[in-house]
């Protein structure tokens, strides 16, 4: 057999050919009727994500730990999303005496857990993670934000505990179970973010018009999709997670929680930026990131910029590129985050 024929023994050969022919019937083009296109795209994304199960009404939470720092207070809290889902989070509040603060929901990715967001170190791995600027909540509170650092499902303290035989990747089993039940695991994580925003909305010292969401890698993925469907997120910071599907999750190994069934039939990730527009959108990337390659990031960013230009707010999207790999770049990102958070909110067509 010839070399080209032998390639066809690999499943990816068929998948890549299918990817090249994927219709992307809802992809953005400059001549679209933007409000109509945005509405159709949002409805399709919600359909593909599947039902989002969350409680409504006031959030009752229990304080598990309380700690007073010189610059902020810290509370570890627990609250229910549904009667079957318990959420853990850290709530950090600045102590500078202002009446209202902007807020930032902080999401870790495939790391040991949300304790990194508040700078807690339990082992060598935690030290390495914090050296890569993953103490998101500490960064946020020091920049004058109320921070809600949420433990994501299947990560940290919310890893699977009941199933005896488990996959080595802590997210894998949960992703497969969700698909069998007719929804995605991403939708479950989005539900927690939405319930966290319910909590922030009831805190009298939070400015409801300035609620951001930030996360890296798996946290960036949830930040992105949550921002696409949750209008209360007024600023999105997606770190090492925004890239074309073709250059990242379709050609490089990724955990199963990155995938949305049937997505390529309708859109690319760059098209979904149109569901965040015109709200501020900060993309942070690493020049040497091996799993979200910079060429794919730049390609996605260029199309996303066209979308923001279409709605008349090209200044509301920025790409921040650090010199290294798959990590956060706090010193480069925060000046951009703060600049865009302070901008006058843009009106979004719904």
Model description:
The chain is of the alpha/beta class. The protein has one domain (3-275): 3-Layer(aba) Sandwich (Rossmann fold). It contains eleven helices and nine strands. The chain has helices at 3-7, 11-20, 34-49, 124-131, 136-142, 172-180, 185-201, 218-229, 269-272, 294-310, 330-341, and strands at 61-68, 72-82, 85-94, 101-107, 146-150, 206-216, 235-239, 281-286, 317-322. The protein has a nine-stranded mixed sheet, with helices on both faces. Helix 7 (185-201) packs across helix 8 (218-229).
CATH architectural grouping? 3-Layer(aba) Sandwich
Distance between the termini: 56 Å
Share of helical residues: 25-40%
Can you say what the CATH homologous superfamily is?
A: Alpha/Beta hydrolase fold, catalytic domain
Helix/strand-derived category reads alpha/beta
Q: What is the rounded Rg?
A: 20 Å
The best one-word shape is globular
List unreliable stretches of 5+ residues: none
* SSE sequence, one letter per element: HHHEEEEHHEHHEHEHEHEH
Give the class-level CATH name: Alpha Beta
Largest sheet geometry: 9 strands, mixed
> How many β strands by DSSP?
9
Strand content: 15-25%
> Strand order of the main beta sheet, please?
1-2-3-5-4-6-7-8-9
CATH-assigned fold name: Rossmann fold
Rounded mean pLDDT score: 96
Tally of DSSP helical segments: 11
